Amino acid sequence: MIKEIHLPEISENVESGDVTEVMVQVGDVVKADQTLMEMDTDKANVEVPSPYAGKITEVHVESGAEIKVGQVIMRIEVEGEASKEPDQTEEADKEEKSEPATTAPEPERKSKPVPNPEQKEEKHIDRIHEPQLAPPSDKPAPAAPSVRRLAREIGIDINQVPGSGAGGRINQQDVKDFARKVVTDAKETSDLHMPQMELPDFSKWGEVTREPMSKIRQITADGLSYSWVSIPHVTQIDKADITELDQFRQKNKSVAEAQGAKLTTTAILVKVIVEALKRFPKFNASIDIKAKEIIYKKYYHVGIAVDTDRGLLVPVIRDADQKSITEIAIELNDLAERTRSRKIAPDEMQGGTFTISNLGGIGGTAFTPIVYPPQVAIIGVSRASMVPKYDEGDWIPRLVLPLMLSYDHRLIDGADGARFLRWVAEALEHPIGLLM
Ligand code: CAO
Predict the structure, then answer these.
(1) Which of 119, 153, 199, 338 could share a disulfide with 343, CB 3.0–4.6 Å?
(2) CA of 28 to the centre of ligand 1 (A)
(3) Whose CA is nearest to atom 39 of ligand 1?
(4) 3-state class of 44 per DSSP?
(5) pLDDT digits (tens, 9 = 90+) for 293-309
(6) pLDDT tens track for 23-51
(7) Cα–Cα distance between 129 and 118 in angstroms, integer?
(8) Phi and psi for 42 in degrees, rounded to 5?
């Protein structure tokens, strides 16, 4: 049976175009969906696929000719049931378009009218995630000049593009899919993982050993990389004179011990931080960048960085605002011990709203902590040391605690950071103020 092939609808408001290349001639046997010709419209360069499988009997177009939607461009001899009617094809195409983007692509593409490049993008998302690398070959990649031109214009090496057409022929959509995959891969790389650096052979310079990274180390590496690349960090530095506070701590150590608590600087700091968070709610918030919203939390779950032989872990003291310093001290000790002895449950390390990292027990004068997303701020504490302070003509020894506050500058401005940390320092210097 002889069938007419019409120029199908291309996209909204496109009624005609110029033929750029005719790929078939009379007598050619074509498959359904095989590209018959290419044309330029004012919107895009598109390929016209055959709606039927069969033998071309007439060709009514030539390069450079202007053609209109609906015009008969070819005639084809088709055999019975094997070929699809154009209206069936359109139905199939509509169904395919309405499927969610996550549906796996069919192995063989159905015959369809000329695609609207804008609509077609969605359907091809699947294929982007399943790249098929073009087999290495010395032969030039099979693609029409206009496809090559497109690849050249957008900086894609046509030889890298997997072709989806007959015999691996590359069409425009293949080039676009490939370009999209390159962009997606680059984005994923910058979203989470650093670009992979080619490592040299270290054994050239001396003996080396290798060991697998533990799961905790891998999670830490990913989390910190994510934080580092996605959060614009600022670290505000201050110091608190904790002379009186430490005297109070030393005096009350035994009282706390009688209740089973070790009264440490960290335990006191938890309480001070909670009071600061109440006064500066942004520091207890998270950013929902997709929704362009700030999420303020009405609970105060303080994470404490704990150094373990497995690496850094951050258990959380829940509802620290509802606990006394002694209760916090008991819980902190218990959490730190269980974290180190691997008895901590995963959910005890979730839901923190702010983190404290105290390296003062180990040493150091300052460091810049990294925000622990989705939190927006973290306080680092270094070792308190005795320093001379000039006071009314005299130098007097004072115990000074270095404080470092890193925060997410997308949400917190420098002035907020300075105010928050000053408030914390003053609260440590004059804790009575907390009762006011
Ligand atoms: N300055 C001076 N001394 C400090 C101090 C500070 N900033 N912080 C703690 N100390 C003292 C304590 O007072 C204690 O001394 P005493 O025994 O005389 O009272 C001693 O150091 C040890 O304290 P601690 O470590 O037992 O208890 P803590 O509550 O201060 O700290 C914890 C608990 C869990 C924070 C701590 O053990 C820890 O693991 N710190 C490391 C945190 C970490 O790894 N941070 C890095 C994160 S980023 O990689």
Answers:
(1) 338
(2) 81
(3) 306
(4) coil
(5) 999 999 999 999 999 99
(6) 999 999 999 888 898 887 766 667 888 99
(7) 19
(8) -75, -5
Q: Map residue 344 onto helix, strand or coil.
A: coil
Ligand 1 cavity residues, CB under 6 Å = 264-267, 304-307, 312, 332, 336, 357-361, 381, 383-384, 401
Contacts of residue 230, defined as CB under 8 A and 6 or more positions apart, other chains included, come to 191, 373
Atom number of ligand 1 nearest to Cα 335: 34
Q: What is the spatial distance between Cα 303 and Cα 191, in angstroms, rounded to a whole number? A: 25
Q: Are strands 293-296 and 285-288 parallel, antiparallel or unpaired?
A: antiparallel
Q: Give the residue from 432, 381, 373 showing the smallest Cα distance to 407.
A: 373
Task: For residue 160, give the 3-state DSSP assignment.
Answer: helix
Q: Whose CA is nearest to atom 36 of ligand 1?
A: 306
Note if 60 is an active site residue.
Answer: no
Selected catalytic residue, list 60, 233, 409, 430: 409
Helix (H, G, I), strand (E, B) or coil at 36: strand
Could you tell me the two tokens for 401?
């605690």
Query: Ligand 1 pocket: which of 216, 219, 266, 335 to mutate (most atoms <8 Å of CB)?
Result: 266
Residue 162, phi then psi, degrees to nearest 5: -75, 130
The 10s digit of each residue's pLDDT in 185-217 is 665 555 555 667 899 999 999 999 999 999 899
Return mean pLDDT, the chain. Answer: 83
